[in-house]
Design a protein that fits this description.
Layout lengths: L27 E12 L2 H9 L7 H14 L1 H4 L10 E9 L4 E12 L4 H19 L7 E11 L6 E2 L9
Antiparallel strand pairs: 1-3, 1-4, 2-3, 4-5
Length: about 170
């Protein structure tokens, strides 16, 4: 889609914000995958790995927080539809090359609208939870690289970041 033909779907003909009417869309299986990272001092990563963080199991708490956030996305993002999610998974992987943690969130639904915002919200809140639980020892952590990796289903079809963001197939 070119810039000249692109249209923001959450704006009506007058430019006012509105919720997209999805009532005429087909119910399809939809999936979205988002990722992000939390970069930290090597000592902080080791503390998290060892399970000795002052607030407890950082990775476990971040996983639960991400799942809870995905289920509440419509309460956080004003024009999102409430969805009956069928699956949310949060994978958190230590990465010594950052050093830090890589977060990947996958959201699934059978519905009339996509789950990109749910995956992105889950990833963001999981990263924020990691920061919150480890900030006592490392306030300089950096949350970054939060983005959509893939979406499938619906009228626009399949899209991956590997496509360079050029569109679906």
């Amino acid at each position: 889609m070119s810039e000249k033909t692109a249209k923001l779907t959450h704006l009506d003909d007058t430019g006012s914000a509105n919720m997209v009417d999805v009532s005429e869309k087909n119910v399809t299986s939809r999936i979205a995958v988002a990722c992000g990272s939390v970069t930290m001092q090597p000592e902080t990563l080791e503390l998290i790995r060892s399970g000795n963080a002052k607030k407890g199991d950082v990775i476990g708490a971040a996983r639960i927080a991400g799942i809870m956030a995905a289920k509440k996305t419509h309460e956080l993002i004003p024009l999102c539809h409430p969805l009956l999610l069928s699956k949310i998974s949060i994978d958190i992987t230590p990465d010594d090359t950052l050093p830090g943690l890589r977060v990947q969130a996958t959201a699934k639904v059978s519905g009339q609208t996509g789950v990109e915002m749910e995956a992105l919200t889950a990833c963001s809140v999981a990263c924020l939870t990691i920061y919150d639980m480890a900030k006592a020892v490392d306030r300089g952590m950096i949350i970054g690289d939060i983005r959509l990796l893939e979406k499938a289903g619906g009228k626009s079809g399949h899209w991956t970041a590997a496509d360079g963001g050029t569109g679906g197939t």
